[in-house]
Specification:
There is one protein chain. By secondary structure, the chain is of the alpha/beta class. Helix content is 42%, strand content 19%. The protein contains 16 helices and 13 strands. The strands form two sheets. A seven-stranded parallel sheet has the order 3-2-1-4-5-6-7, sandwiched between helices. Strand 5 (106-111), helix 5 (125-133) and strand 6 (137-140) form a beta-alpha-beta unit. Helix 1 (14-28) crosses helix 16, helix 3 (69-78) crosses helix 4 and helix 9 (202-208) packs across helix 14. The N and C termini lie close together (10 Å).
């Protein structure tokens, strides 16, 4: 099959990381696979994918991914005879729907979250429903994501929806060598890997450091539009020596291996790849109790209340003071994470494509 994936960019994020892991595996199965990114800014993910030999089509570097010209650019690319065009994120989903009206191509999309801001805009609902009707297949990455999507779309518009859980390269994270520079930050390292955007809740983690002993340091891996906000908050709480913004890293497995605790803190998630990677790392994993995290962490890692910095700090200290409990959490997390194998996910995606094409 000739397959084109379309995404906004290759900055830090679960959908972006999925491109790095998924596309080379699809090509290894004998398919012609390429990627289109609206914002082609070179990032560690961009370089990793480029180094695998995957061809990347870029529309521009920086600027708005919603630029109207991207509709025309995408239409020109889509009409080149792809069997499957698979979109991720809102702008590619919408623009591919417009372009698909003029091209005979099988459109597939993935819903990467249990919620999104579009669903709060009542005036946008009709456009959202029209957009998804242009797709032959809609893949949700968790059971809750599918439930929420179908509720939003209505029963008549949900017949082409299925769930395929996100996958990770478990062994890459379970057997990583610790990053030496991270070990130098302090005695106890807590690490969070997430984009600096509104969906994520790094402020709760920053505030939690005021409740933890000075031996604890927080490493935030990622970048984004909220960086200035985080820097101001770190300065406000006098945490400059204890909270470290590591930026975008291409050695995340090694960063996690150098940590003592791994945490995900969000307002909502789909099926968080960063969480599964953290659970694979052999470190105690914690997350706040929200949709998309609760499903995989409950009964395995440690859940704390949403937007509760003191609750997070207390959970860390409970783990720190009880070695047996901490080792049990690590064991449970790894047993859960190993079930989400990227190769199984790849096969399921390809089976969806074949079914749509009657192959």
């Amino acid at each position: 099959m000739k397959i084109l994936h379309v995404i906004t960019s290759l900055y830090t994020g679960g959908a972006e990381k999925l491109m790095v892991d998924l596309l080379p595996r699809m090509r290894e199965q004998g398919h012609e696979v390429e990627l289109c990114v609206f914002d082609g800014t070179h990032t560690p993910f961009f370089e990793q994918l480029e180094n695998t030999g995957i061809k990347i089509h870029c529309f521009h570097e920086g600027g708005s991914v919603y630029h109207p010209l991207n509709i025309y650019r995408l239409w020109r690319l889509i009409r080149k005879g792809w069997d499957i065009v698979h979109t991720h994120n809102t702008a590619p989903q919408l623009f591919a729907a417009f372009s698909g009206v003029l091209c005979s191509v099988a459109l597939v999309t993935t819903e990467h979250n249990t919620s999104n801001r579009r669903r709060d805009w009542k005036c946008y609902a009709w456009l959202d429903r029209w957009m998804f009707r242009q797709y032959r297949g809609v893949i949700c990455i968790s059971d809750q994501a599918e439930i929420n999507h179908c509720k939003h779309m209505g029963a008549d518009n949900s017949r082409n929806v299925c769930t395929i859980y996100n996958g990770i390269d478990y062994h890459k994270y379970a057997h990583a060598i610790p990053a030496k520079d991270v070990k130098l930050f302090g005695e106890k390292i807590i690490t969070n890997v997430a984009g600096f955007r509104n969906q994520k809740d790094q402020p709760t983690l920053i505030k939690a450091m005021t409740y933890l002993p000075d031996a604890f340091h927080l490493c935030l891996v990622g970048d984004g539009e909220r960086r200035g906000e985080f820097e101001a908050l770190i300065e406000e709480f006098n945490l400059i020596e204890r909270v470290h913004l590591l930026g975008l890293r291409n050695d995340v497995p090694e960063v996690l291996a150098a940590s003592d605790y791994v945490v995900m803190c969000s307002h909502f998630e789909g099926l968080s790849l960063s969480s599964l990677e953290g659970m694979s790392s052999g470190k105690a994993f914690l997350a706040d109790d929200v949709d998309g995290l609760r499903e995989i962490v409950k009964g395995n890692g440690v859940l704390f209340e949403h937007e509760d910095p003191k609750g997070f700090a207390d959970a860390i200290m409970k783990l720190e003071c009880n070695t047996k409990y901490r080792k049990q959490i690590v064991k449970q997390c790894q047993a859960k994470a190993v079930q989400y194998d990227i190769n199984v996910m790849t096969e399921k995606y390809l089976n969806i494509y074949k079914k749509l094409l009657n192959k």
